[in-house]
Design a protein that fits this description.
The protein has a 7-stranded parallel β-sheet, sandwiched between helices. The protein has 11 helices and 21 strands. About 25% of the residues lie in helices and about 25% in strands. The protein starts with a strand and ends with a helix. It has 3 domains: about 5-55, Alpha-Beta Plaits (2-Layer Sandwich); about 75-245, 3-Layer(aba) Sandwich (Rossmann fold); about 270-404, TPP-binding domain (Rossmann fold, 3-Layer(aba) Sandwich). The protein is an alpha/beta fold. The protein has helices at about 15-20, 45-50, 85-100, 115-125, 145-155, 170-180, 270, 295-305, 310-315, 345-350, 380-404, and strands spanning about 5, 25-30, 30-35, 55, 75, 80, 85, 105-110, 130-135, 160-165, 185-190, 190-195, 200-205, 210-215, 225-230, 245, 280-285, 305-310, 335-340, 355-360, 375-380. It binds flavin-adenine dinucleotide and iron/sulfur cluster (2 copies). One iron/sulfur cluster (SF4) binds next to helix 1. Flavin-adenine dinucleotide (FAD) binds near residues 313, 324, 328 and 329. InterPro entries: 4Fe4S_Fe-S-bd, 4Fe4S_Fe_S_CS, DHS-like_NAD/FAD-binding_dom, ETF_a/b_N, ETF_a/FixB, ETF_alpha_N, ETF_asu_C, ETF_asu_C_CS. Keywords: Electron transport, FAD, Flavoprotein, Iron, Iron-sulfur, Metal-binding, Transport. It comes from Clostridium moutaii. This is FAD-binding protein.
Length: about 400
């Protein structure tokens, strides 16, 4: 670990370091600087001290000096109710591309119960090897057991890159794994590529509220870790003739587990997951109040779609966080996205870019959402939605009659 200390004999008590410290981590005692526990080792004070009174010893224990040999791209598979989540296949396709650039193999870590068929499916989707742990204790996604076992497997197999889906579970365990491995993690990447000069993984993600894209590298630590949201990447077709190995690494389960999953209950909004739906009807502040949300629910129901939401209305409690679409919510890729009373802020648009067809309803003809829409309806949602529902119901009923 890096370390910082004050050389008391050199400190003249000028307080320059105090003024420079962005974390308020320096205080003065007997006219000498003292560094507190909230120091983040950012190094700003070292440059500020003209008397050379602050000594910072940088951690030189990087992966190259450790003598360990890291190679291969590893994907963490996520399952729910025994099914591999689509994001795993999306990551596998990207891992295959990265592996071509680095001339290396792709492995997948698969934890669960009765995992053999899923291991084969992962091989069909591009894995050269599956590192599987098959145990009844892994039937549910336990946030205490999973990171511990994954860390053990990473320490044994030493991949140079580890990719994880930015799902609710992935977002929860990725930082724990990164912390246990003492490496870096870039969350919510939208682009991953290998730098041809250095062979490093360049991880690009939106920064500063989506106003610019930041490309991040992790040169000193291994593995290089990134999470990617569902639907940002495209999965490859399965090829059942592909061959690969299933390996069962030795792991020891943590003792004294404090977290037990008693039951998994899906919320109503998760029954049709907004991220998987072919039709999404999304609501924004233009719906006026929570009572009017029933208009959006009705339209989604008649179309057999899911209800999405902007962050503004999630913050107000009109919809659940699991329904939020956008930079800090879900990325969706429906065939039809209907935006009702949504202005089209850049953070919202970040989540709908992969939609095939966007219909926007907004009172304001200059609303930015219209620039991203295939069809724009200038008008009041509260009047248009009931009319739409009525017409669609009529069409449905007449089809049923014809069918009968
Ligand atoms: C770091 C960061 C992350 C963020 N992440 C997200 C995110 O993931 N998802 C997200 O959505 N936002 C996100 N935001 C918030 C985002 O910037 C916007 O504030 C938000 O998307 C606006 O929501 P809105 O369109 O519902 O509301 P508003 O911007 O208030 O727009 C309401 C719209 O409704 C229209 N309208 C009003 N009445 C009617 C009516 N009766 N009929 C028709 N139209 C009507 C108005 O003309 C207006 O265009 C984030 C912001 C930041 C800073
Ligand atoms: S800037 Fe240097 S000399 Fe001045 S108080 Fe801080 S440590 Fe002491
Ligand atoms: S290293 Fe950074 S956080 Fe720590 S005392 Fe210096 S300026 Fe403050």
């Amino acid at each position: 670990m890096s370390n910082i200390s004050i050389i008391s004999e050199k400190c003249v008590g000028c307080k320059s370091c105090m003024r420079q410290c962005p974390y308020g981590a320096i205080s003065m005692k007997d006219k000498k600087a003292e560094i507190g526990e909230n120091c983040t080792l950012c190094g700003a004070c070292v440059e500020a001290c003209k008397f050379g009174a602050i000594l910072m010893e940088k951690d030189s224990n990087n992966w190259q000096q450790s003598g360990d040999n890291y190679s291969g791209i590893c994907v963490l598979a996520e399952q729910f109710n025994g099914h591999i989540k689509a994001v795993t296949y999306e990551l596998l396709a990207k891992a295959g591309e990265l592996a071509l650039s680095l001339k290396t193999k792709v492995s997948v870590i698969l934890l669960g119960y009765n995992v053999k068929d899923n291991a084969k499916a992962l091989i069909a989707h591009g894995a050269n090897e599956v590192l599987a742990v098959d145990n009844i204790m892994l039937k549910d996604l336990n946030e205490e057991i999973y990171p511990e076992l994954i860390t053990q497997i990473i320490k044994q197999y030493k991949p140079e890159i580890l990719l994880i889906g930015a799902t609710a579970f992935g977002r929860s365990i990725a930082p724990r794994i990164a912390s246990a491995l003492n490496t870096g993690l870039t969350a919510d990447c939208t682009k991953l590529e290998i730098d041809s000069k250095t062979g490093l993984l360049f991880q690009t993600r939106p920064a500063f509220g989506g106003n610019l894209m930041a490309t991040i590298a992790c040169p000193l630590r291994r593995p290089q870790m990134a999470t990617v949201r569902p639907k940002v990447l495209k999965a490859a077709e399965a090829d059942s003739s592909r061959e690969g190995r299933i390996i069962y690494p030795e792991v020891s389960f943590p003792k004294n587990i404090k977290l037990r999953i008693l039951e998994t209950v899906l919320s109503d909004s998760q029954k049709i997951n907004v991220a998987d739906a072919d039709i999404v009807v999304a609501a924004g502040m233009g719906m006026g109040n929570i009572k009017n949300m029933k208009l959006v629910d009705e339209l989604a129901e008649v179309l057999g779609g899911a209800v999405g939401a902007t962050r503004a209305i999630v913050d107000l409690g009109w919809a659940e966080y699991s329904q939020q679409v956008g930079q800090t919510g879900k990325t969706v890729a429906p065939k039809i996205y209907i935006a009702c009373g949504i202005s089209g802020a850049i953070q919202h648009l970040a989540g709908i870019a992969s939609s095939a067809y966007v219909i926007a309803i907004n009172k304001d003809k200059d609303a930015p959402i219209f620039k991203s829409a295939n069809v724009g309806i200038v008008g009041d949602c509260l009047e248009i939605l009931p009319e739409l529902v009525k017409s669609l119901k009529k069409i449905k009923e007449s089809k049923v009659k014809i069918g009968a």
